[in-house]
Amino acid sequence: xxxxxxxxxxxxxxxxGALVGAGALAASCTGNEPADGGGxxxxxxxxxxxxDAPGETVIIGFSAPAADHGWIAAISRNAQAQAEQYSDxxxxxxxPTNDIQQQIAAVESLINDGVNAIVVLPNDGxxxxxxxxxxxxxxxxxxxxxxxxxxxxxxRTYIGGDNYGMGVAAGHYIGRRLQEEGVxxxxxxxxxxxxxxxxxxxxxDGFRAALETYxxxxxxxxxxxxxxxxxxxxxxxILQARDEIHAVWNHDDDQGxxxxxxxxxxxRNEFFLVGGAGSSDMMAQIANPDSVVEATVTYNPSMASxxxxxxxxxxxxxxxxxxxxxxxxxxxVLASETITADNVEEYQDLGFES
Length: 354
What we know:
By secondary structure, the protein is an alpha/beta fold. It contains 10 helices and 12 strands. The protein has helices at 3-21, 70-83, 100-113, 129-137, 163-180, 198-212, 228-241, 253-266, 280-287, 303-315, and strands at residues 58-63, 89-93, 117-120, 142-145, 157-161, 188-192, 220-223, 247-250, 272-277, 293-298, 331-334, 338-339. The strands form 2 sheets. It has a 6-stranded parallel sheet with strand order 2-1-3-4-5-11, sandwiched between helices. It has a 6-stranded mixed sheet with strand order 7-6-8-9-10-12, with helices on both faces. Helix 2 (70-83) links the parallel strand 1 (58-63) and strand 2 (89-93). Helix 1 runs antiparallel to helix 8, helix 3 runs parallel beside helix 4 and helix 5 (163-180) runs parallel beside helix 6. The two termini are 19 Å apart. The relative contact order is 0.15.
């Protein structure tokens, strides 16, 4: 069986395993040993700065969607592994779920338990806004991860990726490459994510804005569902619709496994591809000179590790030692970086398995 098609089968198997094992995160932990990443090293920061000096023990609650996607699985794994770096963190992860009402109930249970801080990646920021505000009103600081709550009073600190910046980074990489090759009127394809989501729209808007600076535009775009199966279906449709393509941007490295399977099945390689997120799978493709994948733009699940570190400092009443200010900032948006063959080794520690 070809390598990419084998990866598709492996991804489907791992998906089932992730759902079975997700409940293990509910256990409390205060140890200092790194978590077992199931063959993958979680993205954590080791103790060593002034901020890492032991302080008052704090209870940090954590809630995230179910691990039915490689990026989400890495979010939960990174959060737990980072918490285990500190002897002064009592980590309380509730059962991950994709059910809105169940996640609301889980966060309410953390509030009732009187935790010192809550880190939450909501299934839907708007629908969980009220329970996050409930926590804040109860004096429990909330670190809002990735999907933002619409009410600023519902979180103490927000940390997330730059969706518009992802599109900009991908657009500049593709634009420069095609310009350097002297390609005129290139056929540029886009495999987007869920088109109704604001984050997908932001990624597409940034992509188009960057391409415009080179005089280029997207020729064909179709939304997928951030899954292997949808990526394969959408890329197959695009390949059937265009006999020639010069470049492809795929919004999500998880669905990228399916995108590559469709490319392999079609036997096409006249174009290059840029991914999105920074998975270990895409980094391996980038390092392979025979792959169509030349780059991926980051949207790192390492943000969960940072969220735990921020929640600890906030709960202990400390600021960030690298900043002059005495308190943790309210908003932190991570830059989207471009990973290529020239720097791929530098990013291996942040990769996640699709």
